TrEMBL record:
Keyword Nucleus: yes
Annotated GO biological process: mRNA catabolic process; negative regulation of translation; regulatory ncRNA-mediated gene silencing
Protein name: CCR4-NOT transcription complex subunit 10
Gene Ontology CC, one term: nucleus
Location of the region described as Disordered in the Swiss-Prot/TrEMBL record: 395-417, 451-474
Gene that this polypeptide is encoded by: Dyak\GE26206
Protein's cellular compartments: Cytoplasm; Nucleus
Domain of life: Eukaryota
Primary location: cytoplasm
Keywords per UniProt: Cytoplasm, Nucleus, RNA-mediated gene silencing, Transcription, Transcription regulation, Translation regulation
C-alpha cells in the first residue's frame, strides 16, 4: 500500500504546515497512528488547501491503525476520493503527495492494490488503466509503482505475451529496467519484475510468499522489478540465467525454470533444498509451506505419481487453511496468499486419475465459483459425474448378482441444476463447456511468425499502444494459455463426453449430433475417431436406423488406427484387437436388428476378447433361438 504522505516543501509561506506534515510522516513511520491522525486533523483545522491529500492520508493511517484489516472501509473511501477528483492526475493546491504524485493518482493506485490482493484481477486492471495510459506523464517513482502492479496483474491473468511486450515498453521507452542476464548472449530479453515466483501446472498456479502491495520509492523496488523480469522471461520460455540471492523467491523461480524445461527431478530437488534451508534457518511460513507442497504435487502429477501428488496437495491445503481461517478479519497480504481454489483444482485432477470421482467432484465445486469461465474445469466436473455414475452401475450389477431375489429401487427424480455427481448435472456441465469452448475458438489468436522474422528480427520500438497488441489465449485460468491443438483436443473430448451422456440419458438425437460433430473435428485422435463412430452407431440403432448405423461400424477402419493411441490412454481398450472386437460386436447387433442373422452369427464366432466375450455369447444364443434348430444339426 502506498502512503500519500512523504512531504515535500512546495510554497515558501507554508513552513509551519510543512513541519506538521513532516511530523505526521515521522509518526506514521514509527507506527504512532493516533498521533499522526491528530497532526493531520490539526492541518485540516488550519485551513490547509490540500483537502484530497489530507483525506487520503487520513484514510490510509486509519487503515493501518485498525491492523490493516478494514480494507473494505479504505476501499470505499478511495472510491469516493477518485470519484470526486476532476482528473486522475489532478494536482492539489497545497502540500504535495509523495514524489509529487497527486492524491487521486495514489488513491487509484491503492485501490487497484486492494483489488489485486482480493484476487479481483480484472477489476484491478480496469481501475489501474487510467494510470497506465498516462504512465509517461507520471513522476518516475509513481510510474515504477504503477508499472510494477500492472505487470503483476498481467502475469496473474496469464497474459504472458502482453506482459513481455509491456516490459519491452518499460525498458526501451521508459528506461525503468535493464536487460536481464541471458544464457544466450546474442539474444535480447527485456522484462520487468516485482512479484513472488509462481509455480505452474496444467491446472493452476500458487505463489511463493510475498505481497503485491509495493512500498517505498524506486530504489526499494529494484529487487522486485528484477525478480518480476526473470519471472516473465521464464514463463515465456526465454533463456535466462537465474542467480540465486539466498531468498526463497529466487530459489523457487529456479525450480520453476527446471519444471518448464521438463527437468522434474531437478525441480523437486530444488524445492526440497528450499524447504531444508528455510527450516534450518527458522524462516518457514505457511505461505512457503503451501507453495512447496503444491509445487511438489504438481511435479508428481506431471510424472503420473497420482497418489503422491494427492498427498502433497492435501498438505498444501492444510497449510493454506492456516492462512484462510478468517479472511474477513485478515490482512490484505494474508488474503492475497490464500490459494485454496487453485490447490483444490489440482487435488480434483489428481483424484480423477485415482478414480475417486466423488472426492474430485467436491474439490471442483469450490474453484468453479471463481473460474466459472474455464471450459476445462466444467469438463473435469462432467468427467467426475460420469465416472461416479459408471461406478454406481458396476456396484449395482455386482449386488444384483449376489442377491437371490431381485430388489426394487425407488426412483428419485432430481433437478439437473443441483450440483451432485449425476448424469443430469454432467449434461449441464458439458453444455457450459461446449458453449465456452466454441466461443473461445472464434476468438483464438494465431501468432503467425515466419522463418524470415525469426532469422532477422526487426528492431524493437515499443510505444504506449504497441504493448497492448499482443494477445494471449488465456481462456482456462488459472491454467496457462492454451494452444490451438490443446483447444481442439478439449473440444473433441467435450463432444465425446456429451454424446456418451446423451446416450445414457436417452437423448439419442443429441448423442448423434455430438458424435457427428466429433467426427468432423480437425486433428482428431484415433481414440476419439473410434468413439465418434461407436456413439454414432449406437445412437442410430436406438433410433431404429440400423442400416445407417452399419456405415459407422465397419471394422476395416479400425485396422488403420494407431495402436499407441490406445495403449497410452486410461481406458479399457488397450489394444487395436480390443477395439476390433468391440466394433464387430456392435456391428453384429446392427445386423441382428436388420434380421441379417447368419452374417451376425458368423461375425460373433470370432469375438474372443474378454471385453465382449460374455455379451457375444448371449447374443449368439439369442440368434440361435430366433433362427430355430438347424435340420439334422446339433445344438450349439
Amino acid at each position: 500500500m502506498d502512503s500519500a504522505e512523504s512531504p515535500t516543501k512546495t510554497q515558501a509561506g507554508e513552513d509551519e504546515n510543512y513541519s506538521l506534515l513532516c511530523q505526521a510522516h515521522e509518526q506514521f513511520n514509527n507506527s504512532e497512528f493516533d498521533r499522526c491522525l491528530e497532526l493531520l486533523q490539526e492541518l485540516e483545522t488550519r485551513g490547509e488547501s490540500s483537502g484530497p491529500v489530507l483525506r487520503h492520508n487520513r484514510a490510509v493511517v486509519s487503515y493501518y491503525k485498525t491492523g490493516c484489516t478494514q480494507h473494505s472501509v479504505l476501499l470505499k473511501e478511495l472510491e469516493a476520493l477518485t470519484a470526486d477528483a476532476d482528473a486522475p492526475g489532478e494536482a492539489s493546491g497545497g502540500l504535495s503527495l509523495k514524489q509529487g504524485a497527486a492524491a487521486a493518482t495514489v488513491a487509484r493506485y491503492n485501490r487497484a492494490v486492494i483489488y489485486y490482493h482480493r484476487h479481483m484481477f480484472g477489476t484491478a486492471l480496469e481501475r489501474l488503466a487510467p494510470l497506465v495510459a498516462r504512465l509517461e506523464a507520471l513522476e518516475k517513482a509513481m510510474a515504477a509503482l504503477v508499472a510494477t502492479l500492472q505487470l503483476q496483474l498481467l502475469l496473474a491473468t496469464n497474459q504472458l505475451n502482453r506482459a513481455e511486450a509491456f516490459l519491452d515498453y518499460l525498458q526501451y521507452k521508459l528506461n525503468l529496467v535493464a536487460t536481464a542476464p541471458s544464457s544466450n548472449s546474442a539474444e535480447e530479453a527485456a522484462v520487468v519484475g516485482s512479484a513472488p515466483a509462481t509455480a505452474t501446472t496444467n491446472s493452476s498456479v500458487v505463489a511463493t510468499p510475498g505481497g503485491a502491495a509495493v512500498e517505498g520509492a524506486v530504489p526499494g523496488l529494484g529487487g522486485s522489478l528484477q525478480l518480476l523480469q526473470l519471472i516473465t522471461l521464464v514463463l515465456n520460455r526465454k533463456p535466462v540465467v537465474i542467480q540465486e540471492d539466498g531468498t526463497p523467491e529466487y530459489a523457487a523461480l529456479k525450480a520453476q525454470q527446471y519444471y518448464i524445461m521438463k527437468d522434474f527431478q531437478m525441480a523437486a530437488k530444488q524445492l526440497m533444498r528450499i524447504n531444508n534451508e528455510c527450516t534450518h534457518a527458522g524462516t518457514v511460513t505457511p505461505q512457503l509451506s503451501t507453495c512447496i507442497a503444491n509445487n511438489m504435487g504438481v511435479i508428481h502429477l506431471r510424472v503420473r505419481h497420482y497418489a503422491i501428488a494427492a498427498k502433497f496437495f492435501q498438505n498444501a491445503l492444510n497449510f493454506d487453511q492456516q492462512l484462510a481461517r478468517n479472511l474477513r478479519q485478515s490482512t490484505l497480504q494474508t488474503m492475497s496468499s490464500a490459494r485454496s481454489c487453485e490447490i483444490l483444482y489440482n487435488l480434483g485432477v489428481a483424484m480423477l486419475h485415482l478414480r475417486r470421482p466423488k472426492e474430485a467432484f467436491q474439490c471442483f465445486l469450490v474453484p468453479v465459483k471463481q473460474f466459472h469461465s474455464n471450459p476445462r474445469l466444467w469438463l473435469r466436473m462432467a468427467e467426475a459425474c460420469i465416472m461416479e455414475h459408471e461406478a454406481k452401475l458396476v456396484e449395482e450389477e455386482r449386488q444384483s448378482q449376489s442377491e437371490t431375489t431381485p430388489s426394487t429401487k425407488p426412483y428419485a427424480p432430481q433437478s439437473a441444476g443441483v450440483p451432485e455427481p449425476t448424469l443430469e448435472f454432467a449434461a449441464l456441465c458439458l453444455r457450459s463447456a461446449l458453449t465456452l469452448t466454441q466461443h473461445y475458438k472464434t476468438r483464438f489468436h494465431m501468432a503467425a511468425v515466419s522463418s524470415e522474422d525469426v532469422e532477422a528480427p526487426e528492431p524493437k520500438d515499443p510505444t504506449q499502444e504497441s504493448w497492448r497488441h499482443p494477445q494471449d489465449n488465456n481462456f482456462c485460468n488459472p491454467s496457462k494459455p492454451v494452444s490451438l491443438e490443446s483447444l481442439e483436443n478439449m473440444l473433441a473430448a467435450i463432444y465425446a463426453a456429451h454424446s456418451f451422456v446423451s446416450l445414457r440419458l436417452g437423448d439419442h438425437v443429441t448423442a448423434l449430433e455430438m458424435s457427428e460433430k466429433l467426427l468432423a473435428c480437425e486433428r482428431l485422435s484415433d481414440a476419439h475417431k473410434l468413439l465418434g463412430h461407436m456413439y454414432a452407431g449406437e445412437a442410430l440403432m436406438l433410433m431404429d436406423k440400423a442400416g445407417e448405423a452399419r456405415d459407422h461400424l465397419d471394422p476395416t477402419f479400425v485396422g488403420t488406427l494407431n495402436a499407441f493411441d490406445f495403449e497410452t490412454r486410461d481406458w479399457q481398450l488397450k489394444s487395436v484387437d480390443a477395439a476390433q472386437n468391440v466394433v464387430r460386436y456392435n456391428l453384429a447387433v446392427a445386423m441382428a436388428l436388420q434380421n441379417d442373422l447368419p452374417q451376425a452369427k458368423a461375425l460373433l464366432a470370432n469375438l474372443t476378447h474378454s471385453l465382449v466375450a460374455s455379451k457375444a455369447l448371449a447374443l449368439r444364443r439369442f440368434i440361435d433361438l430366433k433362427m430355430g434348430p438347424v435340420p439334422g444339426g446339433t445344438p450349439s
